[in-house]
Each structure stands twice: as structure tokens, then as C-alpha cells.
Amino acid sequence: MVTPDPVTAETQVTAQIQQFYARHMQAIDRGDVDAWLDTFTDDATIANNTRPEPARGRATIATVARRLVADAAGSGVVHRHWTGMAQVARQPDGTVRATSYALVVQTPGPAGSAGPGSAGSAAPGLWRSTVCVDVLVREDGRWRIRQRNVTHDDVR
Amino acid sequence: MPAEQSTMPRGVDTDLYLEIQQFYAAQMQALDGGDATGWAETFTEDGVFATNADSSATCGRAAIAQAAHAAAARLAEEGLVQRHWLGMLDARPGPDGGVRVRYYALVIRTPGGGDPVIWRSCAGADELVRHDGGWLVRERRITRDDVG
Fold it and tell me: Cα distance from A156 to chain B (closest Cα, Å)?
């Protein structure tokens, strides 16, 4: 039996970042805003190409997130954020710059149909395709997003 | 919400995370390849497969294999090829050396000569247990996004 190579720091960080995004995206998709906010630093900023001015700080991000979650719940749709193709670059200051693709799969959901156990009529579809650039910092043994910049592919 | 007070549990180590990704790749390729027996053998003997579309779960390897056989036959009859994509794995240490994994799944269906479509979007929760140096599913709960 061959002794396996030790896991390099590079590989370890890449796997940690993959796990980070799984939790981060699952939190917002199930509407758990508190768990999602806990994946940002206090002074985090979020910017995207639809809004020039970034949201600054957890409190502002919280307000926006709660509104978006309420809107989605009200319309009965289910969103699933899939991230992949992540380039994980460790920076000299110990932060990580992760550039990923993110797809949002939208399923209309059973709203308005016959109640629990009933199936919706419409198929899932791709709702958004984006590029997400995050700067992540290691705090207290875990990763948090300090800076996010999202580019929506449909916005020119 | 100060950082120090975070109670979010740790994930699993890198090699375990990669191992679990490999487990799912093999398991889904067995299912999509029509290997119902091989698929069923990725569950424990008393393994459970439950979904929110069905009030009663499929229990035990024999029943899981039978359901997969039937599903493969239906797909073949309709001329459809199915591919399960699992991703966004959130794996956490579970009891007795096991692992709890929460993930997303897409089911892509392609008709002969036609365009692929996303047939289903789901979230899954698995309880995995160690067996012979590999993993087995003791319990799987699938939540289909189109089902209330």
C-alpha cells in the first residue's frame, strides 16, 4: 500500500472554501438569514453590476437579505445557488481571493397547487448566471467574506 | 454578532471531503448507468430512501434496488437518459464516526436526439456510515423543490 501524499496547504484551503460556499449558499437558499450573515465580517461589503454603490456592513446587508428572502417566500419559488469553477488564490496578507461562477436554479414551486405533497407544474430553470469575486478572511478558525463583487451576466 | 460567538460547527477534513465527493460520483454514476444492484449496495442493508414526494420511504437494499430497476425501465421505455449532478456538499462529522451531508442535486434528462433539460432540482440530506474503508448511506432524505 502506497502512503498517500500529505494534503498541501493549497489543497486544504481550496477544500475549506468549497465547504464554505456550500454552507453559505444553503443558508440563504433556505431563508436562514442569520446563518448567512454569520458568513460575512462585520464590515463586509457587497457590490454588483446592477447597483454601483455597495452595501456596507452586516446591518445593511441584513436588511437587503431579509427583503430578498421575504420576496422569494412570497412568490413561492425555490432558489438554489450553485457555485463552481472556483479559482482560489491565497494572498500574502493571509486572505483568500476566490473567483467563482454561480448559477441560480429556480423552481416555481407548488404555490397555488393542491397543497402538501403536491407537485408543481413548471420545471426548474436557470435563473441567473454570475461571476462572484470574494475576498475571504480567516477569523476564529473559519472563513468569512469581507468583500464581494458579483457580476450578473445579463447586465451590460 | 461578534465573530467569537459563532457556533457554526466545523466541516470535515480535506481528504474526507474529497473522499465523500468521490463516493457521490460513483454512486450517481451507478444509478444513471442503470446498475440498480450496484446503486443499492451503496446503502446499508437497512438503508432508507425518503422523499417529500412520497409519504412512505423505501426501506432496505432489496426495495431500493427494485425501485431503481423500475425507474431505469421507465426511462428506457421513454428513451430518456438521466444524469444526477450532486454538488454544494456541506459535510459535518456525525455520531459514531459517521458523516452528515447536505447537498443540492440536479437531474438532467436528455431525450434521444433532443436537448437536455433540468428535470428536477432538489436538496438532499444523508447520513453516511463507514463500511470496509468506504461509505454507505444509512438514510437519505430528498426534498424536491417542486413539491410542497
Answer: 27
